[in-house]
Amino acid sequence: MSIHTADVDDRADGPPAGSRPASPHGDERAARWADRLWSAVLAGDTHAAVDVVEDALGAGLDAEAVLLDVIAAVQHRVGVEWAANRLSVAGEHTATAINDRAIAALPVGRPGTPRGRVTVACVDQEWHALPARLVAETLRLRGWQVDYLGAQVPTAHLIGHIHRTGPDAVCLSSSLATRLPLAHRAITAVQAAGPPVMTGGLAFGADGRYARLLGTDAWAPDARAAADRLAAGPLPRPAPAHQVIDDLPHLGDQEYTMVAGSSARLVRDTFHALQERFSFVRDYTDEQRERTAEDLAHIVDFLTAALYVDAPEIFTGFLAWTADVLSARGVPVRALMPGLDLLEEQLRDFPRARDYIDAGRGTLTARP
After folding, report:
1. Predicted TM-score of the model (pTM)
2. What is residue 23's predicted lDDT score, i.e. its pLDDT?
3. Contact between residue 118 and residue 145 where contact means Cβ atoms under 8 Å apart
4. Which H or E element spans position 239?
């Protein structure tokens, strides 16, 4: 079989941003309000969602608990339900928009003297904005002046904002590991501009291992932890300006640079090889061909991200997640194998890349 997954209607660019569970330290009373908000989300009822927020506040739940233990918990459930094929992409987008509106319904007092000024932004090309917004709103609730810049902030524009506003710290969010090279660029650029950087989001690993690898000044697993860390005192000042290779000496082998630079050709040549070796691929519709190319592009993207930080688990983890998503939609895991085989042929001169693909193949074959 080919890598083709075109009969999968619901698409996503890697593990969803809502896949981190809510903090275990929240208000236990929030569970019933989360259930009510979930019902409103499923119904696509924005007014009902706002009513849940107002009713929860009226019942004595504080705004931070509503934000993190109700709204964020529901967003986590959205990610789980999408992956299990119980929620469509349209349903996921609707739910996220409703949760955004629910956040806007929260009251935020204006402190007389802010605790400090913090810039919160997603790294360039990171479009999962809700995790960053949760951090921004939590900090506002705790009395910080927050500049929330939203999704996909080009690094040059981020630096320009920092020079204009002089924040005490910058919080950078990324949910997809494919953004780690861009995140690294943003981290080093912000540090060179002066303020320390705190990072968060699934891209940096559940334990923050990639945040540390990229030289960030602090890492937080969730919005509460980020706010607690900033409240505990100033972040350490950034180290003197340094080069990317200082953090990631393995990049000296040039595998990342060469594979990333040839990614479009890799996708194209692998797809053409699929067409040549599997006759039924030649009969695909235009939409099926487009989606197959997208699948290959995702695989190459996660492979290059793994090469950047020398972490094969980024690639194997993506393949395992993809296999779960495909299985939930009735697509056999073996559909991924031909694409991996053909991609490995294209990368015969890159030992780390071949090792990662072999590890990915082993991850898939070991699955029940």
Report:
1. 0.89
2. 44
3. yes
4. none
